[in-house]
Amino acid sequence: MLTVGIVDDNQLDLDKLELIVAQIPTIELLLKANSAEEVYTFIQEKPVDLLITDIEMPGMSGYQLADFIHLNNMHTTVIFVTAKSGYAVHAFELNVHDYILKPYNQERLVQSIERFTTKKAAGKITGRLFIRSGGDLVVIPKAEIIFLERTGRTTTIHTSNETFETYQSLGELEGDIRESMFIRSHRSFIINLQYVKRFAAYSKKSFVVIFEGTSEKALVTKEKLKYLQENYF
Fold first, then answer.
1. Looking at the chain, which terminus has fewer C-beta neighbours within 10 angstroms, N or C?
2. Where is the Response regulatory domain (predicted)?
3. Domain locations in the chain?
4. CATH code, residues 2-122
């Protein structure tokens, strides 16, 4: 069961959200609020899986609320439902799942929630990666892999505990990592989306990927970032 909170200072818009989510059998609506302050207090005690929020509200804004969630690494994902388009780029920096503009139809929101549910279920990474390194066969739990980097003739595998080097190519290893959270972000990188904190501007054609668990960074192309926005965030 997916736990959900909704917040909007406009009562009609809030009632519309409630009507839509109430029709989804896999959802438990834990919180309905007219202010971000109320949500801020609630989720510190009982985080919800998914928060659907307006952005511009009196007092604390939905953007400030999402920023608090992001900075504190809370296990709550945000969908913005707003009449303002100007926050879209900044919202993506907070790893929000979706940015829906008012007025919207029911199908648009339902599809977004279903996509999040699918992503959440697929995000449970299992299995192990076997690599050849220095004459040894090394076994690495896939859930610990942050990203893979090709440099010259070797591939470096960055994990939450240590790094490994192998002469196996990214193409070879990509075939062994058939998990939805692993994405070929660049010709030289495969990244694990579960560890991504944010994407920072780097050049006209690429962005730097900043991770949790390591100070090392990867690259993602502009085209791949657009794909991630449309399908993952």
1. N
2. 3-117
3. 2-122, 128-231
4. 3.40.50.2300
- The tokens of 47 are what? 């985080």
Q: What is the 3-state secondary structure (H, E, C) of the chain?
A: CEEEEEECCCHHHHHHHHHHHHCCCCEEEEEEECCHHHHHHHHHHCCCCEEEECCCCCCCCHHHHHHHHHHCCCCCEEEEEECCCCCHHHHHHCCCCEEEECCCCHHHHHHHHHHHHHHHHHCCCCCEEEEEECCEEEEEEHHHEEEEEEECCEEEEEECCCEEEECCCHHHHHHHCCCCCEEEEECCEEEEHHHEEEEEECCCCEEEEEECCCCCEEEEEHHHHHHHHHHCC
